[in-house]
Automatic annotation (TrEMBL):
Belongs to the short-chain dehydrogenases/reductases (SDR) family. This is Putative peroxisomal 2,4-dienoyl-CoA reductase. CDD domains: SDR_c (cd05233). InterPro entries: NAD(P)-bd_dom_sf, SDR_DHRS6-like, SDR_fam, SDR_PhqE-like.
Length: 221
């Protein structure tokens, strides 16, 4: 597979969890890494930690709040700061929205999908305006959006990683132990393991519209 050395990688949600793991892995392979987060102090801390681990590495932090109504303008500004890039990794998320079906309303549904669905489409728009991606995406979530984007944005490649339970600090240890019992491997994934899937898709220049699932066998149980 081709090297990603000297490639420029922009990682949304790169200050913690899976995004931080992808940044770490990319730096270890010689890539130039831009990480963004809505939290300025977390960005500062993440950049400092990565620079300490990779003194010769190039990592730049950006603050970009994806939850605000003017998110598109904020994304434009971010890409002006990063310049051209070779790979975009989207791992941004917010607190998981859980509510009984009987208590749902339109505002809650739209807010729940904003970071995980709406913003990735806006990120894609800045590279190329999608035509069918929105229709397919609303019909089938990310599994439908990504193949649609791969068609609309060709010859650019669009892929996604579908992780199972991953130990990122999102849930306490006792929950991780409970989830581990529901996998065939008897464990939850680590950030380092999942990061490998993202870098694999960067390197496999024959992969597009594809999903890599890394889930400890949780879908088999």
């Amino acid at each position: 597979m081709p090297s990603i050395k000297n490639s420029t990688v922009v990682i949304f949600g790169g200050s913690s969890g899976i995004g931080y793991g992808v940044a770490d892995k990319c730096l270890s392979e010689g890539a130039i890494v831009h990480i963004s987060s809505s939290n300025a102090s977390r960005i500062t801390q993440a950049v400092s930690s990565l620079k300490e681990k990779y003194p010769e590495g190039q990592v730049i932090g950006h603050t970009c709040d994806l939850s605000l109504p003017d998110v598109e303008q904020r994304l434009v500004k971010l890409f002006e700061e990063t310049g051209s890039c070779d790979h975009i990794v989207y791992t941004a998320g917010d607190a998981l929205a859980v509510r009984p079906l009987k208590d749902l309303d339109l505002q809650f549904i739209q807010k729940a999908g904003h970071i995980r669905f709406d913003v990735p489409l806006l990120v894609a728009k800045l590279a190329l305006r999608p035509d069918w991606a929105v229709v397919a995406g609303y019909a089938a979530g990310l599994h439908g959006m990504v193949p649609g984007l791969a068609l609309d944005m060709k010859p650019l490649r669009v892929n996604f990683v579908s992780p199972g339970p991953v130990k990122t600090g999102l849930f306490p240890d006792e929950v991780a132990e409970m989830l581990a019992k529901k996998t065939t491997l008897g464990k939850v994934g680590t950030v380092e393991e999942v990061a490998e899937a993202y870098v694999y898709l960067m390197k496999d220049t024959n992969a597009t519209g594809s999903c890599v699932s890394t889930n400890s066998g949780s879908l088999l149980m």
